[in-house]
Amino acid sequence: MDSATENTHNSTRPLQGVKVIELGTLIAGPYAASMLAQFGAEVIKIESPGEGDPLRKWRILHKGTSLWWYSQSRNKKSVTINLKSPEGQAIVRDLVEDADIVIENFRPGTLEKWGLGWDDLHKLNPNLIMVRVSGYGQTGPYRSRPGFAAIAESMGGLRYLAGYPDRPPVRVGVSIGDTLASLYGVIGALMAMHHLKTGGKGQFVDVALYEAVFGVMESLIPEYAGSGKIRERSGASLPGISPSSTYLCADGLYAIIAGNSDSIYKRLMNAIGRPDLADDPKLAHNDGRAQHNEMIDDAIGAWTAQHDIGQVLAVLEDAAVPSGRIYTAADIHADPHYRARDMIEQRELPGGGTIDLPGVVPKLSETPGGTDWVGPELGQHTDEVLAGLGMSAEAIAKLRERGVV
After folding, report:
1. What are the start-end ranges of the E strands in 110-197?
2. How confident is the model at residue 8 (pLDDT cuts 50, 70, 90)?
3. Dist. CA 19–CA 256, nearest whole Å
4. Is the peptide bond before 243 cis (omega within 30 degrees of 0)?
5. Alpha-carbon distance 208 to 138, whole Å?
6. pLDDT in tens, 51-66
7. What is the pTM for the complete model shown?
8. What are the tens digits of pLDDT across the range 98-139?
9. Is the distance from CB of 100 to CB of 174 less than 8 angstroms?
10. What's the angle, vertex CA 321, arms to CA 315 and CA 323, rounded to 5?
11. What is the dihedral of CA 68, 74, 79, 83, to 10 degrees?
12. What is the mean pLDDT of the chain?
């Protein structure tokens, strides 16, 4: 598929005309760029010649390429440049001169060694916005340490809370630290763009993986600072919020039930045949229920154990109590609500076949995002992008011979 066919961006997409240079690999930087690409930005992904982003070989492969790659790198243009080469660095500087955003997730100091740090690029393009994602941020005593999501999730406080109190901490089954950092990077870039629009100047956005995790830890620090209490692992429930947990049903499946607002709690108790608990004054508000959470959970669990999950969810839906089953990938893929909201998109793969991708989030009423093509082949757009800089086919061929592109 040639670029003219690929370039089908809807002109109403909100980031149409925004040019992004992506210098990152794996997840934290590239996922941020992926979100911008889905909403119309031209994302030029710089990859190393011959190898490319390691994500191309992660997890399950289709004809040698990761299925994950096709999803995360949708709508991007792949350009191969050797960033360690002075000629390659010069090409990146040329690309940056008219770019709006640069996204990178190298260890702090790496781009500076190549003459591609913030000070270098800001001089070339004073309006540039640079999103810098790293394990520990661009400053501080830990800045030079290598940082991955697993470490960030631990330092940020999440890992300590994940699991049951009588067992070691566990991890969430995805790299949530990376994706949280990506979201903060996108938010920062959009705020910086608004600042430019109102007369401000270019700036860099410093996103640390551990801070992205720490930023969603709710009341963790205020409670510790105010009371000296360290929040502990609590399994499927949330301490101090009652009732909200996971309950085993008669067919061996688990129902998630959240009845923690006062009115919902009363409806829940009446629905499971426990009006005595619904009308108990000491359980009327969450602070009282939290003191008797074990009793309430036992009552709910005794009821769910008598019914299959379908019966449990039907009763609770009728009572307007938030509840649901725990979805596997198969459940998600088959669910009609996902389909109705276009959250499963089928696209063609290079060389034949199709792939189902997650739909675009969020959904904008007037300028929605979309998927124009799946993750590109390595270097698929190199000639096109370099020709846009004024290079001839002969000059590009010579660069390729020297391993620059």
Report:
1. 129-134
2. very low
3. 43
4. yes
5. 8
6. 999 999 999 999 999 9
7. 0.91
8. 999 999 999 999 999 999 999 999 999 999 999 999 999 999
9. no
10. 80
11. -50
12. 95
Q: What is the pLDDT of residue 390?
A: 96
Question: What integer pLDDT is reported at residue 5 of this predicted model?
Answer: 36
- pLDDT at residue 289, rounded to an integer: 97
Query: Are the CB atoms for 121 and 128 separated by under 8 Å?
Result: yes
Q: Amino acid identity of 143?
A: R
Strand-pair partners of 80: 47
pLDDT at 4: 35
E strand segments, 36-104: 42-47, 61-62, 65-66, 76-80, 101-104
pLDDT in tens, 315-367: 999 999 999 999 999 999 999 999 999 999 999 998 889 999 999 999 999 99
Catalytic residue numbers, as ranges: 178
Token reading at 332:
């998600």
Distances (CA, A) of 97 to 19, 180, 188: 11, 29, 21
CATH number for 3-216+338-401 (one of 1.20.1560.10, 1.10.10.200, 3.40.50.10540, 3.40.630.10): it is 3.40.50.10540
The band of 11, judged by pLDDT with boundaries at 50, 70 and 90, is low
Q: How far is CA 334 from CA 150, 222, 308, 328, 343, in A?
A: 31, 42, 20, 10, 11
Could you tell me where the beta strands, DSSP code E, fall in 176-313? Answer: 203-208, 244-248, 254-258
The residue ranges of every structural domain in the chain are 3-216+338-401, 244-325
Q: In what order do the strands lie in the sheet with 254-258?
A: 244-248, 254-258, 323-325
How much helix, strand and coil, in percent to the nearest 5, is found in the chain?
40, 15, 45
Q: Cβ atoms within 10 A of the Cβ of 253, count? A: 15
Give the separation between CA 335 and CA 358, rounded to whole angstroms: 13
Res 268 pLDDT > 60: yes
Fold of 244-325: formyl-coa transferase, domain 3 (3.30.1540)
